[in-house]
Prior knowledge:
The protein is 55% helix and 3% strand. It is globular, with a radius of gyration of 17 Å. It folds into 2 domains: 18-51, no CATH class; 54-113 and 148-211, N-(1-d-carboxylethyl)-l-norvaline Dehydrogenase, domain 2 (Orthogonal Bundle), CATH 1.10.1040.10. The chain has helices at residues 32-42, 53-74, 78-83, 85-104, 117-124, 128-143, 154-160, 171-181, 186-199, 208-211; strands at 21-23, 47-49. It has a two-stranded parallel sheet with strand order 1-2. Strand 1, helix 1 and strand 2 form a beta-alpha-beta unit. The chain contains 10 helices and 2 strands. The protein is mostly helical.
Amino acid sequence: MHAPGQVRRTVPLGTGGRMVFYVGEVHGRITPRVARIGEWMAAIDTVTVTTNLWGERWTKLCVNAMRNGIAAATGLSGNDCDRDEALRRFSIRVGSEGVRIGQALGYALERIQNIEPERLALAGEGDAAALEEAEAVLLATTNSGARSDLQRPSMGQDMLKGRRTEIDHINGFIVREGAKAGRAAPANAALTDAVKRVERGEAPARREAVAGLRPGA
Length: 217
């Protein structure tokens, strides 16, 4: 919403097989009602009726964790974040922590930003080949034109508009769930703190707010 009552769509409908909506029952069975909901949502954009609702939700959480907080703390668009090597690699580390915690909690994860979850986890843990693969996928999406340079993750929009962000419910949630599973999430914790500093007006939204982070160092 770039102005009152005005919405700018920054990605085409159902681009490149990208799935927009996932609907399912909490118990995992495909029921007539969830099938009907899938039909309704298909009138808007691409949809999958899934038996893996909880795994899909954690998968989406990882996507949001990789994109929203970085845009909010830096003030940059989604594409600009991906084009910056330091920010791109930090986002991969954030996603890697999310994958490992999701696995520890027993979720069956799906592809995250078109990256296999295990490859994303390895990329954030220092596997050079996996990192090269993950970066190539992120850059391919950015350079394909599938996402407008005007696109800004929702938390980045909230920060610009002076709204309270959802950082505690995205990256902060990963940190808290990781503690339950006995797994630390230092990159997610550092990003949560960086966003809160900007939100409180203690620091400006700029690239260095994230590029300078050294979690776990």
